[in-house]
Every structure is written in C-alpha cells, then in structure tokens.
Write a structure and sequence with these properties.
Layout: E1 4-10, H1 13-28, E2 32-39, H2 51-56, E3 63-65, H3 74-95, E4 99-103, H4 107-118, E5 123-126, H5 137-147, E6 150-153, H6 156-164, E7 172-174, H7 179-185, H8 191-198, E8 205-210, H9 221-233, E9 238-243, H10 251-264, E10 269-272, H11 276-285, E11 289-292, H12 295-299, E12 308-311, E13 324-327, H13 331-341, H14 344-350, H15 362-373
Parallel strand pairs: 1-2, 1-4, 2-3, 4-5, 5-6, 6-7, 8-9, 8-11, 9-10, 11-12, 12-13
Helix pairs in contact: 1-7, 1-15, 3-4, 4-5, 9-10, 9-13
Length: 387
C-alpha cells in the first residue's frame, strides 16, 4: 500500500510540543508519509524562531508559511490570516497531501482549515467541541469543526458537543487530551537538571504564570495583567516564573508588562520566551501552583497533582478538575485563590483528583482511527439533526 501523505500543521511552540508524540508515531509508521507545515510564531524572531526546535527534534519541515505581521492589533491578525491562506493554498498544491491534521482553534489553524477545505483535503481536527467563552477562538474552533472530516475530542462532553454541531457519530472520537501523552512519554528533568537548564535555583514556593491576551472580556488584557501583577507583588516566599504569551491581539502589551515586572522584581521573578515541552512540564512538576488563563493549567497541571488558578473567562466553559481554582481578573479574587492554593489541606486534596481529560495513550488511539478511515472517505457531509 502506498503510504498516505499526512500533513501536520503547527504554528506555535506549545502546539508543536503537544503534537510531538503524534508526529513521532506518524514518522515511524510505514503506512504514513509525514509532512510538516510550519507557520505562525515558529517563524518569528520575536517568539524565538522556534522552528529550530522542530529541526533539532529530528523532524523534516516540508513547508514554511510566514504569515505574522509586526503588529498585534485585530486588523493585523485579520491580514495575517489572509496572508496565511494565500501561502497555504500554494503549499497544498506542492504537498499533494491526502490528509491534514490541525490542533485547536487559533487563527493560524482557522486559516489552514479554510484553505484545506477549499482544496478538498480532508481534515482531522484535534480538540474540537470545547468552549472558551472569553476569546474569539470559540467561534474559530466550531468553524473548523464544520470543515473537518474526522474529529478527535479530548473529553466525552466535547464529543457530544461536536455531535450537537451536526457531525456524524462515526466520525467523532473521544481520545483524551494529547498533551497528557508527553507526561507519560518524556523523561522529565529532575530538580537539579531543571535548575541547570533554566539557570535558576528553585527555592521556596514556585509560582508558574502563563497569561495570554483576552479578546472578548470587558476588562482589557492590559487591565487584567495589571491586576495579576499587583497580586503577585505580595508574594514573597519563593519565585515567580513567567512564560510569555501567544501572538494574539494585545500580546505585546502583556510581554512588555512582564519584562518590566521581572526587572523591578529581579529578586523573585524570571521570564522565559520559550521553555519547550520538556522544561515546561518539568517545571510544572516542581511548581507549587500554576497561575494564568492557559489551557495547560486546566488540562496538564491536574495530572501532576498540583493546584492551578484559572483567571477570568478565557477558559470559561472548559471542563476542569477539582484542583482548578477559578477566580475573577481582580487583585482581591486572585489573592484569595492563591491563599487557597497554598492551603496544605487543599494541596493534599489536589494529589488525588481525577483528570477529566483522560490518562494518556491518545496518540495510539488517533493512529488506529486514522488507519481505519484514511481511505475512501466521503467529503460530502450531511448535517445530522438531533432535535
């Protein structure tokens, strides 16, 4: 049998990290001819030219589509999507892909999905059906679902939501969150190795902060970040480690505020542009609490038995373990959440919580399902009414 050309798209460091187990499996399987299309933040010097990590990991990059403009306004994002679609159209002409795999809901993913759909390349979509009421990604995610042929959801509730969008039962599969595969598969760094890799000493409490821009909330990204930083100023017993935000609208404002905070509070705060999956997950392993509005605080943190604080509505609607503390983007609410996270009884409780996103082995499930469905698929979908 001629191997099927499977094009996997990645536009950010975090996305590549999540996809790494799947990329490795596709690369090693003779039934597949892996293609990697790199775009978005990977190609930006501002975000660390992280395409280099893909090459260092032993993968071949088949196409690069540079689409980011040197601005983070909503107008620039729309223009970037347009540039992306132009590039993706030509890329798919050259690649002759049999399938394209897309993870998530960012604007790069939406642009790729639109191009693939119009080029009649079937799409396998990961993490559909989720709800994040605080960001524009919500609408993009559901739109990608309607353009996709196969759906790999991270929880049963999300599978049901994809079905609610009119998709066929035979094409929607709950496989769990692929990010949990890395926790199982990677040999995480021990404390000494991590300290050497980060060039810091992990003494006292360790607060890991990842805060991304918000696009649909009443308080602006700048106002929310200001409230968070004012809460963190009161933290004295340990270290605050920031990971920088995505290339969304207002991302540069947050980056500037973080850099200024680490300069003013150099004794307790450090920021990293790009940790990569190994260092990030290793750091999470030794964290006291993970703070912010990233999906990693919802999905991966509970797997380590650590508390996490989810700020604002960016992740509103996502299923969350009982170890996740939800709070308002206000100093007082964030401080109350921190107090709960540092409570010894709550910490002990967190070590026993059940993660609703499964326990790994997601890659194996995806590979098995792809093999059963990658030939003879009908692109003509019927809307399945469930009234």
């Amino acid at each position: 049998m001629i191997p099927k050309k499977i094009c996997v798209v990645t536009g950010s460091r975090s996305e590549f990290g999540l996809l790494t187990p799947l990329l490795s499996a596709l690369k090693d399987d003779p039934d597949f001819d892996l293609q990697i299309l790199v775009t978005g933040m990977h190609l930006s010097p501002e975000f660390g030219n992280t395409y280099q990590e893909i090459l260092k990991s032993g993968f071949t990059i088949n196409e690069t589509i540079d689409m980011l403009l040197s601005s983070d306004t909503s107008t620039a994002i729309v223009k970037s999507m347009g540039l992306g679609m132009i590039g993706y159209a030509d890329a798919f002409d050259r690649l002759k892909s049999d399938w394209v795999i897309i993870l998530g809901d960012r604007f790069e993913a939406f642009a790729v999905a639109t191009a693939a759909y119009m080029k009649k390349v079937p799409i396998a979509h990961l993490h559909g059906g989720e709800a994040t009421a605080g960001v524009t990604d919500e609408a993009l995610r559901h739109s990608i679902t309607k353009m996709s042929t196969l759906h790999f959801t991270s929880a049963e509730e999300y599978r049901k939501r994809v079905l609610q969008l009119g998709e066929d039962d035979d094409r929607v599969f709950n496989v769990g969150a692929i990010g949990l595969d890395n926790i199982q598969n990677l040999s995480l760094l021990n404390k000494r190795e991590l300290e050497k890799a980060l060039n810091i000493s992990l003494n006292g409490e360790v607060v890991v902060v990842t805060f991304h821009p918000v696009t649909l909330e009443n308080l602006s990204s700048e106002e929310q970040m200001k409230e968070l930083l004012e809460a963190l100023i009161t933290f004295e017993n340990g270290q605050i480690i920031f990971t920088m935000p995505n290339a969304d609208a207002d991302g540069r404002i947050i980056r500037t505020m973080i850099k200024q905070f680490t300069i003013t509070h150099a004794n307790k705060a450090t920021a990293f542009d790009n940790l990569g999956q190994l260092k990030y997950l290793s750091l999470m392993q030794y964290s006291s609490v993970v703070v912010g509005n990233s999906s990693s605080g919802i999905i991966e943190t509970p797997a380590f038995g650590r508390p996490s604080i989810n700020i604002g509505d960016r992740q509103k609607g996502r299923i969350a373990a009982e170890s996740v503390i939800h709070c308002e983007p206000r100093k007082a609410s964030i401080l109350a959440a921190l107090n709960k996270a540092f409570n010894s009884e709550f910490r002990e409780f967190c070590t026993h919580v059940q993660n609703p996103y499964g326990s790994g082995h997601t890659t194996e499930k995806i590979i098995s399902i792809l093999k059963k469905n990658m030939s003879g698929i009908n692109l003509k979908k019927q809307f399945v009414d469930r009234i």
